[in-house]
Write the structure tokens for this entry.
Amino acid sequence: MTNPPPRMAVVAAESEAAQLALEELRDLYPCVPPERAEIIIPLGGDGFMLESLHRFLSKGVRIFGMHRGSVGFLMNPYRADGLFERLAAAQPVVLHPLEMNAVCEQGAKCRALAFNEVSLLRESRQAAKFQVSVDGVVRIDELMADGILVATPVGSTAYNLSAHGPIIPLGAGVLALTPISAFRPRRWRGALLPHHAKVRIDALETDKRPVSAVADFTEARDVVSVDIHENRHIAMTLLFDREFNLEERVLKEQFAS
């Protein structure tokens, strides 16, 4: 006796390619509303995948994305046929997000989660100044830069890579702490931290060097301090085709020319 197929919901980005794929899959397969689904199929690019991870965070469902957007690092190739078989054979990857707790100049607080990175960025023409602490120890008294970010292994191939940070294998158990266009200290290129590290970044001279903090796509303006740590109590499971698994793609990125 074979197991029944999982209850599946398909959601799509607004692009024409994603909407056409949505219609095709709904014609081929029985679909349920997202609130009743065991597996969610996002159609789009990596941006839409991040939106879906946040949207369905509280539901504990598995996510099998298919690429119908621009960047598709977190997505599987789009194919309409054999979807149930692909889901049955897919490999799971469990993601734990970063948690950002920011305090703004007027005392307002902002808590947000990030599966890619938490970044602090200058708001004005002047470079920002930061003090960087790890596990309660000040490691950099004064960093002058356009910004600084903390990235997960999945996020290490995104903004972190553009800022010349290291690519991190999924099972490495580390986070990347990467400066963005650092001016001083000139030779500091960042650090690799254990995944349980607690990072605190204080913005200095905020009266003339205002700073914003962004967790994936949640932004807090005019921050004075940001605490960042990995939240192991929250998990999302992504599913990948075995021949297209995420760990192999992260490894291949390290040898890309």
The first helix runs from residue 16 to 28. The longest strand covers residues 137-151.
